[in-house]
Each structure stands twice: as C-alpha cells, then as structure tokens.
Amino acid sequence: MARLVMKFGGTSVADLDHIRNVARHVKREVTAGNDVAVVVSAMAGVTNQLVAWCREAAMLHDAREYDAVVATGEEVTAGLLAIVLEGMGVNARSWQGWQLPIMTDNAHGAARIIDINGGELIKRFKEQQQVAVIAGFQGVHKETGRVTTLGRGGSDTSAVALAAAIGAARCDIYTDVDGVYTTDPRVVARAHRLDKVAYEEMLELASLGAKVMQVRSVELGMVHNVPIFVRSSFERPEDIDPRKPPSGTLICDEGDIVEHQAVTGIAFSKDEAQISIRRVQDKPGVAAAIFGPLADANINVDMIVQTVSADGKTTDLTFTVPAADYERARGTIEKAKGSIGYERLDGATDIAKVSVIGIGMRSHAGVAAKAFKALSERNINIRAITTSEIKFSVLIDAAYAELAVRTLHTLYELDKA
Ligand code: ASP
Ligand code: MG
C-alpha cells in the first residue's frame, strides 16, 4: 500500500473513451490498496483552442483573463474523470487549484507554485479512501485570489509538486510514449527505452529538446527527491499487475542508479539560429556591450565562441539564440553597433544543435573527443562546441542533424541489440 500521484496528459484524456481507460488505470491502483491523487491535463487540443480564442478576442489581452480562460480545460477533464470513477464505484471528487489550494506567485501565464495544502486530501484518503482528481496546470495567486496557470505543459509540474506536498511514494506520468528514450525513436530506430535516468540528465534532455516533460517539473522532482515514473497510458489497464514492477522510465537520484554508462542519451534541436559578429574590436567590455542588450531584450544566448578574425587584429564572436528570436537578436545587435564596434553581421537559421548527455562523463575521459573524430569522418563540420560537466553540444548544419545523431548513438553503444 502506498500513496501515489497519477498524472495523465492531453492525449491520454482526449475523449470519453480515453477518460474511461484512465479511470480503469486509477481503479486498478485503488483496488491494490493505494491512496491515489490524479492530476489531469486538458483534453488534447483544448488548451490550444482556448489560447487561440484569447488571441482572437484581442491580440494584447490581460494575462489574468488569459489564465481565467485557459485554466478551464483541465476543469472539464477533472470533473469528467470524477464522474466516470463514481460510475465505476470508486469514491472520487474533483478539485480545482483554488479549492486545495495550490498557491502560486502572480506571474500569470507562467506562475510558480509556492505552496500546496494537501491536508484535506490526506484526511479524505484516511477517512473514506476518496480519490482526488485535481485539475493540473492551474493555481491561485495567494494575495489577489486570482486563477493562475503554470505555463504550457504545466500539469507535469502540478503533479510533481502535489506528490511532494502529500509525501507520495511516486509520481507516475502517464503519457503517449512508454518512457524516456536514448534519443528520438523516430530518428533512430534503434533507440531504446532507459530503465532509469538521473534528474540532472533528464533536465538536460528536457531542456535540449526531448519533449517528454515540462522542465520545471523535473527541477521540482530533483529538489524534493520525488521519484518520477514515465509510463504509457495506452497499455490496457487490465494487462498490468500492480504488484509487479511496471514498464517505463524512472527519473531518480543519480545515487539510485548503480552503473553509469559514459553516455545516457542524445538530444537535438533544429530550433536554433547562429549569429556571427565579424571584426569586433578586441578590448575589454565588448562582450558586455553585446550580451547586455540581448539579456535586456530577454533573448537567451546559448553557445558562444570567440575566434580571431581573418585580419588577425580583431575578433569574431559567434553565438546561438532560439530561431524564434533570430530577427529580434539581429535587430538588437544592429542597434548597439555604435557601442560594440564591428564590421558586419552574418547569420544562419539552418543549423542544429546536437547534445550528448551522461552523468558518466564525470568519470570517463575523452568522451567528447571521440565524437569530434566520428563526426569528422562523416564530413560533418562543427561550427561551435560547448561543454559542461555532464554534457557537450555541437552546432552543425541542420541537413546533417539526423546523420550526426545516428552516428553518435552508435558510437556510444546506445543502439539496442
Ligand atoms: N493543458 C496545458 C497545456 O496544454 C497543460 C498541460 O497539458 O500540461 O499546456
Ligand atoms: Mg504534456
């Protein structure tokens, strides 16, 4: 017997048939004697529709009203699931964020959870074995009492935060994939599912393009040490024996992973753009003159490389930004030309970032060097490199992204046998 949080994403609650399937998963755990809190997303596509309506109503709208609108998607699912559970003889009720409450700050549209009161849920587990069905993605601002939302994909964060608040043994994330893979299986057919992945690795994978979970939910799991288990909601509930270890990927503390391979996974993203500033004067303060205005414009700069210009006297500075910010970044640098002092700007949007991740890199030497050699043998030119303790990334032409990922996947022996 344990206390569990079960979270179901949009594709898992896409219609009433799917919601009935979810209810059977819940009933299985309840029958096995577990206390269960369920967190649900809006039905697939609903949040997109709500967001579109807000924009259509007024391109510039009050973020508090945006939240009032988009929070409703999850409320529908929570109520429907509670109805279906009741119909199956499972004691259940729905909860909206303000009813628990789930307290957040007032960053409407991207609020952070400050505190969750799980007291009433625990009381009801004990007194009447009642299943709590909680609308994900939403909370309430602690001072104004207004409804807030946690940013797209925020139900994952609701679930992990709730698991921490009620001291759950595990937070199960039921989704349309059956776990976390070494890389995107659509690109590398030989990708395999990881049994375990450390929080830190998952953070890198999630921020670098593996879209399994909201990044913030992984951060929260790491801070509160909540074991997060990613598993498929499309498995037939009847085929699962709750006494046997289920199949999926456990996101856990690195100390709970016995053996670390040098490399755990490979992520890639084509949503990158590169900007090179040519013939910048090589003097103190130049980097500040470039990156200060970009930071002020809220543009995230990722890889930065400085090289000597062709003339040998000045320097070239290359960096990457999200492709969506490319034009804005160029504009910002052009505006600051006077204070920076450079000859010209070059840029490219047809580039990709490939990242290799593994806690094992801390103890294995030469992991990155091997990759550079393998890529050069494939004639893939590396435009920039960054490294950190548990990952390195290379910037390459987008046309070679798939080839690079496959090459590295094989190189680090991640191909499934
Ligand atoms: N429904 C919200 C979204 O689509 C939250 C979530 O699904 O996690 O972003
Ligand atoms: Mg999601």
Secondary structure layout:
Blueprint: E1 3-8, H1 16-31, E2 35-40, H2 46-57, H3 63-70, H4 72-87, E3 92-95, E4 102-104, E5 113-116, H5 119-128, E6 131-135, E7 138-141, E8 147-149, H6 155-166, E9 170-175, E10 196-198, H7 199-207, H8 215-224, E11 228-232, E12 249-252, E13 265-280, H9 286-296, E14 304-308, E15 315-322, H10 326-335, H11 337-340, E16 344-357, H12 367-377, E17 384-388, E18 391-397, H13 401-411
Parallel strand pairs: 1-2, 1-9, 2-6, 3-6, 4-7, 9-11, 10-12
Antiparallel strand pairs: 4-5, 7-8, 11-12, 13-15, 13-16, 14-15, 16-18, 17-18
Helix pairs in contact: 1-4, 6-8, 7-8, 12-13
The structure holds aspartic acid and magnesium ion.
Short description:
This protein is of the alpha/beta class. It is 34% helix and 26% strand.
